[in-house]
Write a structure and sequence with these properties.
Elements: E1 25-30, H1 34-44, E2 50-56, H2 60-69, E3 77-78, E4 93-96, H3 103-112, E5 116-119, H4 127-140, E6 144-146, H5 154-164, E7 171-179, H6 182-191, H7 203-219, E8 223-231, H8 261-271, H9 274-282, H10 289-298, E9 315-322, E10 327-333, E11 342-347, E12 350-354, E13 358-363, E14 368-373, H11 388-401, H12 412-431, E15 435-436
Parallel strand pairs: 1-2, 1-4, 2-3, 4-5, 5-6, 7-10
Antiparallel strand pairs: 7-11, 8-9, 8-15, 9-10, 11-12, 12-13, 13-14
Helix pairs in contact: 1-11, 3-4, 4-12, 7-12, 8-9, 8-10
InterPro entries: Gfo/Idh/MocA-like_OxRdtase_C, Gfo/Idh/MocA-like_OxRdtase_N, Gfo/Idh/MocA_Oxidoreductases, NAD(P)-bd_dom_sf
Family: Belongs to the Gfo/Idh/MocA family.
Protein name: Gfo/Idh/MocA family protein
Length: about 425
């Protein structure tokens, strides 16, 4: 039997300049939902490098289940992350997987207490709060990493290597698609926590700050101008099919509707796979027929997608012009299968086409195609973001545990770049204007 975990030693690491450690890093998880639980599970795979010693989670059942799984002592189980502020520092690292609106308060307060930070994206819901987090990390010398997992995937590493080797010459333009997936969008952005801007943030920030960050990283330059267009067109009351009711369990269309909650969550319960990830969220981790039926009957995830209180866009395009003339276009849309992102990069000597796993290089000079298989598929959170979750988390652990801060490639300065572009794109969309950065 594993022993109950208590908090770490009196002396904790500070910043990114520490020497290699002879003990595991200690972690406190703020928010034991899907993302917080995923990071805790990754830590459990490396007990020599990391131990979860505390948790803050408002849902009692979720908190107790999480704490039992990770052997956390009762005195280190907190209802609210602010409970940590009245205590001496409990761990080396705070993993912030809270609702987006809570990121700034938690990150600033915990950085000031000396915690190192692993911060779930987005950094914060507005530019001023992002800058406040940056200021807090700088004044405290905090080792912060954003969970921009796309930067860490084997696919991205290979793609950037090919570009650096001049395989397609100089980049002229880039085209990138994020296919959110119809049932993922319905779960998270119509019924779920990110359905309303006033309760979370704009879709571009909540879902695709990853992609804007990735584009700026791949191109490697600074964005000069941004334009954007998008709206909520489909998931509205006026587009509901005739006969649709407010909840799927009472709807005569539940067996034929593409967005049926009963179909999605019961299929996840019975057949597992990617859909079980979403079923687990809607039933708060209890994978039983009774729990799923109760959530469908009374919970937010059982509502008709045409009769929710959602207001975030269901499709958007962003156009970028970089200093030096490189252009990029980005599309995010709800109306796709749940599949990998698709990218084309157009260079002076060739074209690179990628799907999150395979990279095809077409050489203008030889008129040949070369395909590189990076061996990992599945870009969704349920699938570990094509190895990005593991690689990002392990890079952060190794950066701190082994004294190698260069392993953090999604630090505060790099991550601010993409976030600033996202906020500029939203200003452009709302104003119908081209915004200069």
């Amino acid at each position: 039997m594993n022993p109950t975990v208590t908090a770490g030693p009196d002396t904790f690491i500070t910043g990114t300049t520490h020497s290699p450690m002879d003990r595991p890093l200690t972690l406190v998880i703020l928010g034991a939902g899907a993302r917080g639980a995923a990071y805790a599970d990754l830590a459990a795979r490396r007990p020599d490098a990391a131990r979860v010693v505390a948790v803050a989670e408002p849902r009692e059942q979720v908190r107790d289940t999480f704490a039992a799984e990770h052997h956390i002592a009762p005195e280190y189980r907190f209802e609210h992350w602010r409970d940590l502020l009245a205590r001496p520092r409990l761990a080396d690292v705070a993993v912030i997987a809270l609702p987006d609106a809570d990121h700034v308060a938690a990150a600033v307060a915990l950085a000031d207490l000396g915690y190192q930070l692993l911060l779930e994206k987005p950094m914060a819901t507005n530019e001023a709060d992002c800058e406040a987090i940056a200021a807090a990390t700088r004044r405290n010398g905090t080792a912060l990493a954003l969970t921009h997992v796309m930067r860490y995937t084997p696919y991205t590493a290979k793609l950037k290597q090919l570009l650096a080797e001049g395989t397609i010459g100089d980049i002229v333009s880039l085209q990138h698609l994020e296919p959110i997936g119809y049932y993922h969008y319905a779960h998270s952005f119509v019924r779920g926590n990110w359905r309303r801007e006033d309760e979370s943030s704009a879709l571009l920030l909540a879902k695709s700050c990853h992609d804007i960050d990735w584009i700026t990283d791949v191109v490697g330059g600074r964005v000069a101008r941004v334009s954007s267009f998008g709206s909520l067109t489909h998931f509205r009351p006026e587009t509901a099919p005739d006969g649709a009711t407010d909840r799927c369990v009472t709807c005569p269309l539940q067996d034929t509707c593409a967005y049926s909650a009963t179909t999605l969550y019961r299929e996840g319960l019975r057949n597992g796979g990617t859909k079980q990830y979403f079923t687990r969220i809607m039933s708060e981790g209890e994978l039983t027929e009774q729990a799923v039926t109760a959530a469908l009957t009374d919970g937010s995830y059982g509502r008709c997608v045409y009769h929710c209180d959602n207001d975030v866009v269901d499709h958007q395009v962003v156009n970028l012009e970089f200093h030096g003339g490189v252009t990029a276009s980005f599309t995010l849309t709800a109306f796709t299968p749940l599949e990998n992102r698709h990218t084309k990069i157009f260079g002076t000597q060739g074209q690179l086409t990628g799907d999150g796993r395979h990279i095809e290089v077409y050489d203008f000079r030889t008129e040949t195609r070369t395909i590189h298989d990076t061996s990992l598929d599945g870009s969704s959170a349920a699938e570990g973001h094509a190895g990005g979750d593991d690689a990002m988390f392990n890079a952060y652990l190794d950066a701190l545990h082994s004294g190698r801060p260069e392993l953090i490639v999604s630090g505060i300065d790099a991550s601010l770049v993409g976030h600033r572009v996202v906020f500029a794109a939203e200003r452009a969309r709302l104003a119908g204007a081209v915004v200069e950065l």
